[in-house]
Design goal:
Layout: E1 9-12, E2 16-23, E3 27-31, H1 38-41, E4 46-50, E5 54-58
Antiparallel strand pairs: 1-2, 1-5, 2-3, 3-4
InterPro entries: DUF2187
Protein name: DUF2187 domain-containing protein
Organism: Ureibacillus endophyticus
Length: 60
């Protein structure tokens, strides 16, 4: 399992995408505001995602 790094874009939960802001031991904190439809989703700006639950889309 490859662990995301700060700045990576990850996808999780049926298509949600975000930029990794912090890497923890078992999870990452993701900023969701990069999605075009973010305001329509009525979600918090940031969320926590377990390393086992995301796929890395782009790396820096």
């Amino acid at each position: 399992m490859k662990i995301a790094e700060v700045g990576n874009i990850v996808e999780f939960k049926e298509g949600l995408q975000g930029v990794v802001e912090k890497v923890n031991e078992n999870s990452v904190i993701v900023d969701l505001t990069i999605m075009d439809n973010f305001h329509d989703l009525e979600m918090e700006e940031k969320t926590v995602v377990n390393h086992k639950k995301y796929k890395i889309l782009s790396q820096f």
